[in-house]
Amino acid sequence: MLRRGTAITSDDERSSTVEAAIARVLAAERAAREAVAQAREEAEHIAEAARASVRALEARTDRRIRLVRDAFQRRLGEALGALAPEDAPAASQPAPDAREQARLDEAIEALARRLTGGES
Asked: Model pTM?
């Protein structure tokens, strides 16, 4: 290292001082490259952990949505079952023919008259 007031006595000393400075710069560059590589690797691990966390959250959310939807469908089925007893005709049965429809209309009219105090 050069100090004030000292003179470089030879080209060899000057060369070795320059070579030492270059070596320090190269070592610092190498250390910086290694630090950057390590930081990139750590960032990739952090990013992968975040992606895994998001995947787990997505899976939990999907399960919860499925559970809520299933519970809603169960409750809806129970409510509809309470409104339409099992012995009631199914909606999938064919519509009555004209004669059956006329008989149903007559029965409905008779029941309506009876319930409202009209003729029986």
From this structure: 0.46
